[in-house]
Amino acid sequence: ARPRLVVVGGGPGGATAARYVAKDAAGAIDVTLVEPNPTYVTCFHSNLFLGGLRSFDSLLHGYEGLAREGVRVIHEAASAIDRDRRAVVLSGGGRLPYDRLILSPGIDLDYGSVPGWSRDAEDIMPHAWKAGRQTQILKAKLDAVPDGGLIVIIAPPNPYRCPPGPYERASMMAHVLKTKGRGRAKIIIVDPKEKFSKQGLFQEGWEANYPGMIEWMAPDISDGLKSVDPKTSTVVTGFETYRDAALVNVIPAQMAGAIARQAGLADASRWCPIDPDSMASRMDAAIFVIGDAAIPGDMPKSAFAANSQAKVAAMKVRADLIGARAFPARYANTCWSLITPEDAVKVGGRYAPADGRIREVEGFISQTGEPPALRRATQDENMGWYAAITADIFG
Ligand code: FAD
Question: Per the record's keyword annotation, is Ubl conjugation included, yes or no (predicted)?
């Protein structure tokens, strides 16, 4: 019988891994992907949808390309992992035995991390940190903010999915408000962090393009978030009480997807430690954990990173199961962010295993004061990246 790979989670991590193993092993490995949703909605570029620069439909991707590559796709959730018997238990009751398992379940939101907020309140104060219906709710609420209205974004503590994401989101909200006759609206970002990704670049861009519209409240200024009240649309910090906000976007603390934690693959941080040479779990050598759920050393939690980690795991799985040649692990990432539709900035790097973790080997970041033509070219790169990576993930 052919050796069996089961992949749980059909996002950038899981779909890439399943596709690469199926493609490169040319039928020598039996590859099954377990993913409940028939269509994947990308979080990446969902801020562009918010800004009116992309359609919602353009964020949707199906799994036909994986099926064409020979991946068996099962649209169920994995409800448990039986590590002793090496089998994935499906929500429908079935069992999938595996020789190697790749887990890429993404994040879970910590609904208890923001006092006053809960899962029941997520349609009123949306997170839109998992894409789909939430993304559409946030867009509808943004489009209903009146001129002079108040938006509060509650930013998450580290580590979290997409470090520049909350700040790109604020930029795209300001762009919509400014260009749709609502330039007197205000966006307050209540942040538990003392600094944030690409901070100098964002703050320079906000001053130049959205003067007076975006206010970033570091913890020493806000004196910390105390609570939110979804019924009255109130946000209370130690410094100020914001009442009757037109929109409150709560981005809570995060942790590895439940299936990885329930399988005992996370440590006390609630994220999954991995071997940087292979992305294999530190808890179980037959299981690889990739993407947002993993502890990625110097890499951020991004779709680019998940796709890069997936290729390393796929190579190691082929080496383990059919003796294919494995090369030393190498990783890459770039995160683009929009300040205006014409003004994009980026940060990224190359990474390799060192001292037991994934270490940055070289990095780069956009500079303040760059000429507009360069920023436009960076945005062209960003659009090209989306097309290329979704083709690489989904075929
Ligand atoms: P996910 O994409 O979350 O995929 C996990 C999949 O696993 C899901 O489809 C889920 O249904 C499935 N799953 C979960 N549990 C189970 C289970 N028990 N059984 C079966 N399936 C299961 N990244 C970038 O690189 N560039 C960007 O510009 C960018 N912008 C972003 C903007 C925003 C607003 C946000 C929120 C994120 C952004 N990201 C960006 C980050 C990116 O979306 C994530 O890092 C990426 O999706 C992680 O991929 P993943 O495979 O680890 O997890």
Answer: no
